[in-house]
Structure formats: C-alpha cells, structure tokens
Amino acid sequence: MKSERRPTSKSALAGQAWRDLFEFFIATRKERDPALAKYGLTPNDGKALWSLDTQAGKTMGTLAAEWTCDASNATWIVDRLEKRGLAERRPSPTDRRVKMVALTPLGVKTRDAVMAAFHEPPEALLALPREELEAFHGVVAHLMEIATEPNRRAAASERLA
After folding, report:
1. pLDDT tens digit sequence for 1-40
2. Which of 23, 32, 88, 117 is found 20 to 30 A from 110 (Cα to Cα)?
3. How far is 74 from 14, CA to CA, in rounded Å?
4. Which CATH number is 11-127 given?
C-alpha cells in the first residue's frame, strides 16, 4: 500500500484497496500490451473483440453504449476491425434497416489469442507466496460473485418471464 496511514473507515479502506488494484493493472499493462501489438490492435480494438461474438451481433447503438463512447467512435472502431477482417456488419434478422456487428472466424481466432495472453498472470502476481495467492484468489472470486449477482438475477427473471 502506498500510503503509510491505514484507512479507518470501511469506505476509505475499500477506496484504498480499489486504487491499489487499479494502479496494479496500470503498472502491469506493459505485460499485456505485446499481445495487442502482435496483432496490430489498440486497447479499444481489444475491448471491441472481447465484447463481440459470431452469432447474435450487436447494433452500433448497443456497442456505443457498452463501450461508453459516442456512435461515431464506435463506427470508427468497427470500421478498423472490419477492414482487418476481424468483424463484419450483417443485416438484422428482424429489421433490414439495422446492421448487426459480429466477429468473423478470424476475429474469434484473434480474440482468443489475445485473451489467452491477457490471462497469463503478471510477474508480480506470480511472486506472491502461495498462501497470499490463495487468499487473493478467494477474495477475487467473492468479488466476482457479488459483481455478477444482479446480472444472474436479471437473467433468471428473463428466463421465467
């Protein structure tokens, strides 16, 4: 932890933990960037590949909202991916005026290779003693349960409707 004084409130402690974790991701970016560079991708391209699939496709409006950017920026990202053969625009099965964006087989292969590299643990994580790594894994697994619980409930509600 960077600060010498330990936060006293739960909120302050959570804030410090989040800042430290965020700074860890930023500090270890240099270990992930080569995976993008190998395929000539930007971080936004990687984010786009991660969020697309080959089947359903997504509208430009959906992508812009998901990527928290304006529609022109989403169009620019999709244009880059499409030019490289990683994504394609398809007509919507329900509305021929709407285009859906989906990954091509090359896009899937590229996404899978980039994500495999991203999932390699950074050196700093490998340097932790096993006991600390097990504790960290438990905390992260619990965080994912908490973070995805509203999504699981919403999906269950949709299935019941």
Report:
1. 455 577 789 999 999 999 999 999 999 999 999 999 999 9
2. 23
3. 33
4. 1.10.10.10
